[in-house]
Task: inverse folding
C-alpha cells in the first residue's frame, strides 16, 4: 500500500508546519487555509475515514478529539473554533486518511456550504 499524503507529512517526507505531535496523532497547518487558523489533526494510524474506523479505534478517536481541543487552546482560539470531519465524496473528503479540521480565527457560519 502506498503512503497517504498525511503519512508522508508525519514521516517528514514532505514538508509541513507541524504544530503538535505525540505518539498517536500529528497536527499541522492546512496547505489551503479556509480560516485564519486552519490545522488538520490526524491519527498516525492511517484509518481511511471515520466511516471505516473500527471498534478498537475507540480510544484513539477519543484522543484525537481531545487533542484537537488542546491544539485549539494552544493556538489561542479563545473566541471559539469549529472541528470538521469530512467523510466520503458527498462529505467533501479529498484525502483518504482520517483527519479533523480545526478552523478558527473568524466567525463561522451555519449551515456550512
Ligand atoms: P478533506 O477535503 O479531505 O476533508 O481535507 C483535506 C485537506 O488536506 C484539505 O483542506 C487540503 O487543503 C489539505 N491538504 C491536501 N494536501 C496537503 C498537503 O500536502 N499538505 C497540507 N498541509 N495540507 C494538505
Result:
Amino acid at each position: 500500500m502506498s503512503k497517504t499524503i498525511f503519512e508522508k507529512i508525519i514521516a517528514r517526507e514532505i514538508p509541513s508546519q507541524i504544530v503538535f505531535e505525540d505518539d498517536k496523532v500529528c497536527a499541522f497547518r492546512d496547505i489551503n487555509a479556509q480560516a485564519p487558523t486552519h490545522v488538520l489533526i490526524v491519527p498516525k494510524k492511517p484509518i481511511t475515514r471515520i466511516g471505516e474506523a473500527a471498534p478498537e479505534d475507540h480510544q484513539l478517536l477519543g484522543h484525537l478529539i481531545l487533542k484537537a481541543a488542546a491544539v485549539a487552546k494552544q493556538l489561542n482560539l479563545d473566541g471559539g473554533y469549529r472541528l470538521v470531519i469530512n467523510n466520503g465524496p458527498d462529505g467533501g473528503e479529498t484525502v483518504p486518511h482520517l483527519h479533523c479540521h480545526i478552523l478558527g480565527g473568524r466567525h463561522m457560519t451555519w449551515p456550512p456550504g
In short: Residues 32 and 38 are 8 Å apart (CA to CA).
